[in-house]
Amino acid sequence: MTFTAKRVGALALVGALVAAVVCGPDWLRGLSFVVRAAGMQSQVPAFVARWRNGPFDVSELRLPTRHGEVRARQYLPREPRGRAVVLTSGVHADGIDEPRLVKLASDLATGGQPVITPEPPDLLRYEITPRLPDIIEDAAAWTASQPTLAPDGKVDLFGISFSGGLSVVAAGRPALKGKVASVMSFGGHGDLPRVLAFLCTGELPDGRHLAPHDYGVVVILLNVADRLVPPEQVEPLREGIRTFLRASHLTLTDARLAEETFARARTLQSRLPEPAARLLGYVNTRDVAALGPILLPHVKTFAADPSLSPARSPAPTAPVYLLHGAGDTVIPSIESELLARELRPHTTVHQLSTPLISHAEVDREADGLDIYRMVEFWKDLLDE
Q1: Which of 14, 16, 135, 265 is the most exposed place for a label (fewest CB within 10 A)?
Q2: Which residues, in sequence order, are CB contacts of 81 under 8 Å at separation 6+?
């Protein structure tokens, strides 16, 4: 979801620092953000990590949307030095409390940018619905209308994972014309049916094969459960799936609680009748090979709404930034490459696929060129 780099070579950082000195303050701003977000402060001179840093205040909000008020959080720098960002998380039960999202919002606010993180309720339930781009659009329109946040009436839209693609959808809508300065998709999709077909088959659009991550397949099952089991089994099956997904997230923070939660998912499986028990069994054993063929006949119908795919929606006129992990197995990087090709006749597109990222998380060892490209990407984006 955000930056947690493990190791960065000393020569890579030296080269990036030299480039920052030569290229000037804009490049130094990009380097400072990458260093701060990746937790590399101890590896660079203090002035780099602290470049134009400042304190910020955090407060809770309720944002008005066409689907009702939604919870949100505001990160407001005491000395704003950048454009307001509407930052939407990926599919996660912790929503705006997810630690990696909080860190990214904090890193942006530290650099002077006001940040609003809306919490679309469907994301908390691991559901991908047409309500999501509506809520992102309404959150952006509200933020752009606040003089203290957006003096010029414009905002940046940043989205993580599936919310990345949906932020591109929202940015292209008529209500936001002239109100979006830039939009960034971090590990996002271009065409939802295409991504879901990959998750079910492991086949990429260019014919190559890549083993899909079980997380994405399990999210598909949750969304199409009503097509696979009798009505009375739908919610019990979804409860089991959400328990498994919650356990998967806990492996990052609490191994003991994660194992207890996995055990609860197995207990829920034992209490289910067929066919729900069999399906939850595939989830609990991460059996992507068994689930894929079961889910594939349903993904096109589930993902048919054009508002779920930026490639099937009106293109934004604002510049689009597409950042992707080269080895992403949840949403493959070819999605950003194909979306860039589709958007370029309509707007300026900056696209970077990098080995530094897995799925919307910088957690790979870096070399000098990769660091340079990452800093250049963020420098351009933060300057919009």
Answers
A1: 14
A2: 52, 54, 111, 112, 113
The pLDDT, as a whole number, for residue 47 is 60
How far, rounded to the nearest angstrom, does the alpha carbon of residue 180 sit from its chain's CA centroid?
18
Work out the burial of residue 208: count CB atoms within 10 Å of its CB; fewer than 13 is exposed, 13-18 middle, 19 or more buried. exposed
Rg (CA), the chain: 21
292: containing domain: 204-302
Q: Which two tokens stand for residue 65?
A: 């949307």
Residues 6+ apart with CB under 8 A from 313: 133, 168, 169, 172, 306, 307
SS3 readout for 197-209: HHHHHCECCCCCE
Q: What is the pLDDT of residue 263?
A: 98
Residue 372: inside a domain: no
Q: What is the mean pLDDT of each run of 10 residues along the chain (384 residues)?
A: 42 48 64 75 63 90 97 97 95 92 94 97 96 98 97 97 97 97 97 97 96 95 98 98 95 93 98 98 97 96 96 98 94 97 97 80 60 88 88
Name the phi and psi angles at 320, rounded to 5. -115, 130
Ranges of beta strands (E only) in 78-148 are 85-88, 115-118
Q: What is the pLDDT of residue 43?
A: 59
Q: Give the residue among 136, 126, 64, 67 at the shortest CA–CA distance from 95.
A: 126
Among 245, 275, 302, identify where a domain stops.
Answer: 302
- Rounded to two decimals, the pTM is 0.91
CATH number for the domain spanning 124: value is: 3.40.50.1820
